[in-house]
Amino acid sequence: MQDNFTAPANKYPWLEKVEIASVVGSIGGAIASFMLNQAAVAAIPLSVTVALNLTNRRILLDHLKQHNLATIAQVLQEQVKTQSNLERLSEELGTFEQQTEKKHGEAQAGIKLLDEHLQLTNNNLQQARENSDRSIAQLQQQDANIQNQLQTQLETLNQQLEQLQQQTNMLVQEQNNRLMNEQAKIARTVDALRDIETCTQSLRINPISANAFFNRGLSYQRLGDREAAVGDFTEAIRVNPQYAEAFQSRGLAHADLGDKKAAVRDLREAARLFFESGEIDKYQIARDLGKKFHDLDSPSEAEALTEVAYESSMAGSFEDIALESLFS
Fold this sequence. Notes:
Elements: H1 8-11, H2 13-36, H3 39-205, H4 210-223, H5 226-239, H6 244-257, H7 260-276, H8 280-295, H9 299-313, H10 318-327
Helix pairs in contact: 2-3, 3-4, 4-5, 5-6, 6-7, 6-9, 7-8, 8-10, 9-10
């Protein structure tokens, strides 16, 4: 607040001069009364001085009072302004509190909505977690089932592979056996051809060798050339009409060619010759063969019987041929 106080000396300069003069006069009166030894002389200026001083003090008090009143008015004016400002601030505070309360309510509503959304999110997460756990359990069960199926399929495949291996081994064995049989057959064929060549060379040297004709006939018989075999067996019988083995072999060749009567006739002649020579075992074999061929009803049965006999003849003697024929 600005100070508007003005000193009386400034407002009334003559009064200050008078007061100074009275002070000087009082001092002079005091000196004069001291020198004249008269107290009345000193009292007059002193009274004037006191009066002037009182007047000056009153004026100063009035001026100070006015100044205080102005100051109080100014303070009251400022107080009114302050009160107005306070009322305005109160209104603004009320408005701010209302806005704050409104915002607080909105914040509470937002927090509540956020809590509800968070709760819903938690529920969804819990549901998703439960669904995920169920899905994982289902996947684990499916994985276990798939592993069991794969294990079963693997065992089945292993069994099939084992069976396939066994079948492969059997096929390989059969193929090997067939190959060995073919090789043996080729070897027998080569041996038969070699024997034929050997017998032919012998016949060139000795054209009347019954054994050479007979052995070459056996070789033709092994090769499956029944007609050539019959021809050589016939030549052997021509050279040696008592050749029982030649009759028996020619009878088997006739049987293979389907000539049942010729086969039975040659086998009976072979049995007779074996009997006359005392070879009873061979006699019984030839007789039984002749009887068996005689009792056959169809050419196919005769072919089957002679086939067994020929297969046996490639590996052994006439006794083996007969036994194989009888018990087949």
